[in-house]
Amino acid sequence: MLKIHGYAGSINVRKVLWTCMELGLPFERIDWGGGTRSVTDPDFLKLNPVGMIPVLEDAGQLFWESNSIVRYLAAREGRDDLLPFAPAERAQVEKWMDWQVSDFNNTWRYVFQATVRKNPNFQDEQQIAVSWNAFCSAVQVLDREFARTGAYIAGPAFTCADIVIGLSVHRWRSIPLERPHLQAIERYYDRLCEREGFRVYGRDGGL
């Protein structure tokens, strides 16, 4: 059975949990981080030398970096619908996954820590405003794409990219600040809520 190391509230762990549900894969989840066991523990560093969750353990092999794990699992199961085999089609999915984990994530870190986590180290009002504006601008990019595709981020079909993008959209909706009404985003969110994996690990799984 697959082992997923990381606490259930982590957005990056939830990417992997949702992927497993989409694929029908049983797993055992083992708490690390988030107030459970420290990721600086030598036992965890044996799993991941950079000390970050999640870690996937599969038949003695260890994988880390959440988006890489999502891709690995889809490829492992031969799910061409979630991660196309054809290079050009696959790149259309992977470009959004790469953007999510780099540019998109960087927009929301400060405002999320400030307003949801209530982290005392993230309470500069100017930086909160800058982060929130950047987060909203990034979501508006997605809104235009969803309006264009009429469905999901890489086209008419649900893919791995929607697992990682969808959880970040859920996080945007959790920020307790005034936000623009984005019709295509709302339709996309409703579409995600039709999927059990998102209901469990997105909508109801945490922020």
Automatic annotation (TrEMBL):
Pfam families: GST_N_3. Residues 1-81 form the GST N-terminal domain. InterPro entries: Glutathione-S-Trfase_C-like, Glutathione-S-Trfase_C_sf, Glutathione_S-Trfase, Glutathione_S-Trfase_N, Thioredoxin-like_sf. Residues 86-207 form the GST C-terminal domain. This is Glutathione S-transferase family protein. It comes from Microvirga terrestris. The lineage of its organism: Bacteria, Pseudomonadati, Pseudomonadota, Alphaproteobacteria, Hyphomicrobiales.
